[in-house]
Amino acid sequence: MPMTLMDASPFDRARARRRNWIILGVVLAGLIAFAIHWYWPYYEARKTVNQFMTALVKGNYQEAYAIWQANPQEYSMDSFMQDWGPSSPYGVIKTYNIQTVTVPPGGDASGMVVLVRINGIHTDARLWVQNSNQEMSFYQF
To answer: Given 3-state DSSP classes, what are the helix, strand and coil percentages for the chain, each rounded to the nearest 5?
Structure first.
């Protein structure tokens, strides 16, 4: 025998409210997960550059070189010191300010471009931070 409108169970307001809260929770969790997924590379690149620059400000060049994650055959400690040591174009690094963290022109890339103002000099250091392992290098473009 088919069910008619009169045979339907009464509306359960508490059940509907629970269902709405569950749907809202799932949507909010999805939005939060998307926001974290989108923002995470920016956060990681900023954190890596902050650690690197802080080590340079403290004069701890070994730690900075380790954060840079250079291959010693390709970028020796001597080369690193020429680029970042006291006799570098920046001199002794006393202050820094991360100007921007962004993806390179063209969008989809494997890393982030970080512009850093060092010692108040208006020419920003252009750094590349690889998303997969936080390896640093100079941004060439």
So the answer is: 45, 15, 40
